[in-house]
Each structure stands twice: as C-alpha cells, then as structure tokens.
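Can you please make up a whole protein chain along with its backbone structure tokens because I've never seen that pairing?
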Amino acid sequence: MFNNKDNKSGLVLGMLAGAALGALVGLLFAPESGEETRKKIKKKSDDLKDQAKNKYGELSDAVKDQFNNASASVKETASNVANSVTDGFDKLKGQITSKAEDAQEKAEPKSK
C-alpha cells in the first residue's frame, strides 16, 4: 500500500537533489563574479527549499488522505459486522421466543 508512495517520494527527492546539483555546477562554472554567483546560489537554494516544502506538504496530505480512507473503511466494516451480529442475535431471539411460545401452547392443553 505504501510502497508506491515510498517510490514516489524517493523519485521526488532524487529529482530535487539532481536539480540542485545541476544548478550548483552550472552556477560554479558560469563566467560571473563571486558575488553574482553567490546571489544565484542563494536564490536557487531558496527556490529548492520552497519546492521541498511544497512536496513535503503534498506527501503529508497524501498520507493523511490514505489514513483517513483506511480509518473510514475500518469504521464501515466494524459497523457492518456490528449490524450483522445484531441482526443475527435478533433473529435468534425471535426463533427462541417462537419456540418458547410453541412449547407453552403445547403445554397448556395438557394441563387443562
């Protein structure tokens, strides 16, 4: 169930790491001043941090949704089982009551 999510999160992390590494290498080899390069690195770093926060939020929401769906499914199943048990008990109670009434009716004529 969670294997698919783990694969997706690993893929996302790999993509983010690759993008960061590619951006860093590109900036370091660019023919610009050190100050300009540092500004670009900081901007890329901030962008990647924002992307990571967004992906974390998306993954967190997905996990919460999965948990809520599983929880609702368990509650529904428990409710169905409880209803089945109650229905079975009521049916059994009705059968016992019917048998008791039949026995009482059969016993009454003999005692008269």
